Every structure is written in C-alpha cells, then in structure tokens.
C-alpha cells in the first residue's frame, strides 16, 4: 500500500492553543494491539505483513513490536521490513511477575533480554513492562490474590528497580512500567504506591489512558501529580457504558475487551485533548502510541479505525 499525503505540521487543524508550547515533542505511533494482536501466533490475528502495510498506510511512522515473535525477530529483516514502509520502532513489550521474588529473576531476565536486544537493534529507546495478571485475561481464572502482601510489594519495587538498571546498563533502554487492568499496578492507589516506592532514575511510567480510566484513574491528574515519572503514553479510550457493565459484573479484562470496553476515539473516556495538553506542559519528549484493544476482531476492522484515529489526533495537534 502507498501512504496517503499528510497535512503539513502547520495546518490549521494542528495549531496549538494560544499561549501553549508546541506539541512537536510528542511523537505519535500505533501498535499491533490496535490490529487485534495479543499473541505471537494466533489464527484470529492479521499476518504481520498486513499490520505493517496498514499501519504505514494509515499515516503512522512509529510502531511498537507487540508480543515477541509476532514481528520478525531477526533484526536485519525487521529493519528492512519496517524501513521500506517508512516505519520506526519506539519500544518492545514484556510481561513480568516480579512480585514473586528473586526466584523468578532468571526466568524473567531471559525473556526480557530477548525483547530488549531486538528493540535496541532496531533503534528503540524504551521497553514497556507490564505486570503479571492476577486472573487470566482469556479465561478469567483467578491465578492469585488480587492484593499484594507487604513482602510482595517490596519484591515488586526492588526487582523492578533492578530491571531498570540492568536494561539501561546492558541495552541502553529505559523501562516504562504500564499500569494495566487485572494486574497489581492498576488504579490511583496502587500506581501512587508503586511510584512512591521506586527510584525515578530507574523506573518511569507508561501511562495508558484507557487502562487507567478502566481502573478509575484520572490521567490528567496523574500527569500533573507525577509528571517527572511519565516516560511514555498509550492513547486509548473506554466506553463508559460497557465499562459500567463489566465492573458491575466483575468481568475479566479479556472478555471485557471482546464486549467492546475499549472504543474508538473520540467517542469514549478520557477525553484525549486534555491529556495531550497536560503532557505538552511537561515539555519533554514523549511517545504517544495508539492502542485500541480489540482481540479478537475481524481482519478488515482495524485499518479504517486507525485512519480515523490518526485524523482525530491531528486535529488535537499531534
């Protein structure tokens, strides 16, 4: 596919608000998640070639790697496939269960190292770290207690700091921890507890606006309170009506996504314009990666949504 022409950055729709600093330090991208990709290999997911073709055609220049093994893991091939489509990689993604303590470190590091090495080899600077789920995102099976003990909190924070140090020293990447529904780092209380207990030089936050809203958090307030810890953004919205239903019923995250709890901007919450304005006031370089959880979804559904979302974000000035 060929990419459609893009409006110049100075177009009226992209003009910042009077008296506001420019949004040029926010770099917008998308991810396999917005194409319904949750696993390295799944018959219900689009082939990786189609994802790359369509994300470029929709007007994005940055992508995340998604689940390790979905995109080619040979760095030369991945660089060639992304480069010829005009795409660059912002980050890799890993899942961790560091609250289980030192006994899981070696197993965790083995998969982190593979992801970090590939991300670094193709020019990324970040590694998105997602905590382990306390219930299975496919089946809803409860895997462990929803609340961590004080000892588990200590293991989580100390080992996350170690992860940040090792990833920085060995691969030159910055870890950004992603609060996520159905994990132990989710809403306002647990996110604040986690940030207050970790070293800002080693651990930054990937603020996912959809997940934070799903768990009752206010993204603008978080940016204003912990601005120095915000190292990365995922732009996402929830459908308030569906969210109320899944919260009332205790629906696990996977089935909630299948019911459409994550929706196309700008129809959901939180409003992204104030989030971007708050991020702009930080006056730092940030990636803002669009993610609309849609697993599973028809293969022809993601691309039109991606195009519309990119147009909407341009109207917000990014």
TrEMBL record:
Residue ranges, compositional bias (Pro residues): 1-11
Residue runs in coiled coils: none
Region (Disordered) residue spans: 1-26
Top-level division of the source organism's lineage: Bacteria
Ranges where the Xylose isomerase-like TIM barrel domain occurs: 52-255
Listed InterPro entries: IolE/XylAMocC-like, Xyl_isomerase-like_sf, Xyl_isomerase-like_TIM-brl
Name the record gives this protein: 2-keto-myo-inositol dehydratase
Organism: Streptomyces solincola
């Amino acid at each position: 596919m060929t990419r459609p022409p893009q409006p110049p950055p100075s177009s009226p729709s992209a003009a910042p608000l009077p008296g506001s600093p420019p949004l040029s330090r926010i770099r917008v991208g998308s991810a396999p998640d917005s194409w319904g990709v949750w696993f390295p290999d799944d018959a219900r997911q689009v082939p990786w070639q189609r994802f790359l073709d369509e994300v470029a055609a929709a007007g994005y220049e940055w992508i995340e790697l998604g689940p390790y093994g979905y995109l080619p893991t040979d760095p030369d091939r991945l660089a060639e496939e992304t480069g010829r489509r005009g795409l660059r990689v912002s980050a890799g993604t890993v899942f961790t269960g560091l609250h289980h303590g030192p006994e899981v470190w070696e197993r965790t590091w083995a998969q982190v190292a593979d992801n970090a090495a590939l991300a670094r080899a193709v020019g990324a600077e970040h590694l998105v770290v997602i905590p382990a789920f306390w219930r299975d995102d496919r089946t809803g099976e409860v895997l462990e207690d929803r609340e961590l003990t004080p000892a588990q909190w200590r293991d989580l924070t100390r080992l996350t700091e170690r992860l940040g140090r090792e990833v920085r020293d060995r691969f030159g990447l910055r870890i950004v921890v992603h609060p996520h529904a159905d994990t132990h780092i989710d809403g306002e209380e647990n996110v604040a507890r986690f940030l207050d207990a970790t070293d800002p030089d080693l651990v930054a936050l990937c603020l996912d606006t959809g997940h934070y809203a799903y768990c009752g958090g206010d993204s603008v307030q978080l940016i204003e309170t912990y601005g120095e810890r915000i190292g990365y953004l995922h732009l996402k919205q929830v459908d308030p009506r569906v969210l109320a239903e899944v919260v009332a019923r205790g629906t696990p995250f996977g089935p909630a996504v299948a019911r459409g709890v994550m929706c196309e901007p700008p129809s959901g919450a939180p409003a992204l314009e104030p989030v971007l304005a708050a991020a702009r006031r930080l006056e730092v370089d940030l990636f803002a990666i669009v993610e609309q959880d849609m697993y599973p979804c028809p293969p022809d559904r993601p691309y039109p949504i991606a195009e519309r979302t990119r147009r909407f974000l341009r109207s917000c000035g990014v």
